[in-house]
């Protein structure tokens, strides 16, 4: 399928939206590059779907500015913004065949019959379902319905593709397959794409960059690995994967700085840290169960273990917290028993220090 429209960027400035006294979006500022696959990530009620619908032109009018390709679209109706949106429910017409569903938007635009037929055929070929053109939606699997919803959207040749949790109705194994197909399709078309999800694995595996939202406020923007390794705050750290958070203080002891937990354990810090109340974020893979007790280890007790195939996940009570620790599984090596005393070696080079 040949796209006739150029890739366009999106600029959002100081966007605010409230439903009565309830603030839904607060001061959203965002720049999305042409051709970028961008994700809005956050829990239910964070405002991510509302932000997407604001870009599409659905729902109440927010204040601020939304520009697509430099053109302010805030006062334009959805059909004049030249965006395509795939909904969570797919929203296929149950009384129309696959071919008729895909053609619907083109017929509404009153295009010539020959062009409609050509573009529908190209769109169905693009998603690999041209052989199902005569079927009805209730004769399709969930994955096939999702592909048809995509075909119906891209057939109108939008300049921006908006995806509102399009994989949430699929089972786990099919979601993995479909997100790969979705990314491959986006790369092939080169469409500027925004993908809304509450699943951090989906966002990590597809997006060039993402924005993490909470309570209508963007908490952090960046590449998935950047946000995982360098979260701006505790919300981002906890939302993007498993995070151990130790509360304490940064103190100078002699010529060195130490992070001192509430239980009195002390861990080394680089000299660039500032003294005062702080939190340390540690990922499970950044803590090693050590056979030896050294000056920079923490003594703990195994509370629970889970066999996850390639690794064993332990919950270890240490430093006044229940820490999640991942250890590689090796054949015939038994897991540590509940109640076992262990020494934990913390990789402080991979720790994130957040000041209070």
TrEMBL record:
GO cellular component: ATP-binding cassette (ABC) transporter complex
Lineage: superkingdom: Bacteria
Family: Belongs to the ABC transporter superfamily.
Pfam families: ABC_tran, TOBE_2
A GO MF label: ATP binding
The ABC transporter domain, residue ranges: 10-240
InterPro entries, A to Z: AAA+_ATPase, ABC_SmlMolc_Importer, ABC_transporter-like_ATP-bd, ABC_transporter-like_CS, Mo/tungstate-bd_C_term_dom, P-loop_NTPase, Transp-assoc_OB_typ2
Gene source species: Paracoccus zhejiangensis
The keyword Signal is annotated on this UniProt entry: no
SMART domains, per the entry: AAA
Key words, A-Z: ATP-binding, Nucleotide-binding, Plasmid, Transport
Lineage: Bacteria, Pseudomonadati, Pseudomonadota, Alphaproteobacteria, Rhodobacterales
Protein name: Polyamine ABC transporter ATP-binding protein
PROSITE patterns: ABC_TRANSPORTER_1, ABC_TRANSPORTER_2
